[in-house]
Write a structure and sequence with these properties.
The protein is α/β, with parallel strands linked by helices. It is built from 10 helices and 13 strands. It has helices spanning about 10-15, 40-45, 60-70, 85-95, 105-115, 135-150, 175-185, 200-205, 220-230, 240-245, and strands at about 20-25, 30, 35, 50-55, 80, 100-105, 125-130, 150-155, 160-165, 170, 190, 215-220, 235.
């Protein structure tokens, strides 16, 4: 049974026309930290500038760019836009020196410190939920106390999971946030990643292309597709790792 959407191999033979491309990462180009078949050929076939636009809330752009450089694609950090890193950068820009509790990876903690955020305060004013592989009862309790005392909540992205190599769900930011909201209730919060417009605006600006000249390529219509539509950007759905696993 064939997947219902074109594969990267198929798109590489005849890339859809656009002045600039926004390309999803997890489930589209990589899975489990490994490049999917056809990813390099597809990106190499694009005849207009592209950026990788992802709800990844664990890594920093240099890490992802390095993965592609190992496979011969000369990407730099400005070619990669990640929800977690953007969330940290926006907090540092909007609230310099803010006291932030980070439920996040070591890489994002290092970035936050580098940008001047206070990540060691016992009285945080912001709780940023990203992808934290070391998430625990103690971290959940500390975050719940902070929110109860008035800290505002920022989610790097709303995804509850992303597809693993065989299509199995891998926990994401939204799953951690659900645990927090189960403790404190449905408090107001800001979401940075797709389908919100922030990443799409950054992507089109970085490409130097008006939204209507851009095309979002990804496997998830609820984040890639809906977010692109909100931003006035076209969407091309591809067969992601989950569809390919089901088809095989």
């Amino acid at each position: 049974m064939l997947p219902p959407y074109p594969s990267l191999d198929q798109l590489a033979l005849a890339p859809p026309a656009a002045q600039g491309y926004l390309v999803d990462l997890d489930g589209t180009l990589i899975s489990g930290g490994t490049l999917l078949h056809g990813a390099v050929a597809f990106l190499s076939a694009l005849r207009a500038p592209f950026v990788i636009l992802s709800n990844d809330a664990e890594h920093v752009p240099q890490q992802i760019a390095g993965l592609f450089r190992k496979h011969g694609l000369p990407l730099g950090r400005r070619d990669v836009i990640l929800a977690g890193a953007v969330a940290v950068e926006l907090l540092a820009e909007r609230s310099p020196g803010a006291r932030v509790m980070l439920l996040a990876s070591p890489a994002l903690v290092v970035l936050a410190r580098k940008l001047g955020l206070n990540v060691d305060s016992a009285n945080p004013e912001i709780v940023l939920v990203a992808r934290d592989r070391a998430f625990s009862f103690d971290k959940l309790a500390a975050a719940a106390r902070a929110v109860h005392r008035g800290a505002r909540v920022v989610l790097a992205c709303p995804d509850t999971s992303h597809p693993g190599p065989s299509g199995e769900p891998v926990p994401e930011v939204g799953a951690l946030a659900a645990a927090l909201f189960a403790c404190v209730g449905p408090v107001p919060h800001e979401v940075i990643g797709k389908p919100e417009p922030t990443l799409f605006r950054i992507g089109s600006q970085r490409l130097g292309t008006a939204p209507e000249g851009c095309l979002m390529i990804g496997d998830n219509p609820l984040t890639d597709g809906a977010g692109a539509a909100r931003a006035g950007i076209g969407f091309c759905q591809v067969a992601g790792v989950a569809e390919i696993a089901l088809a095989s």
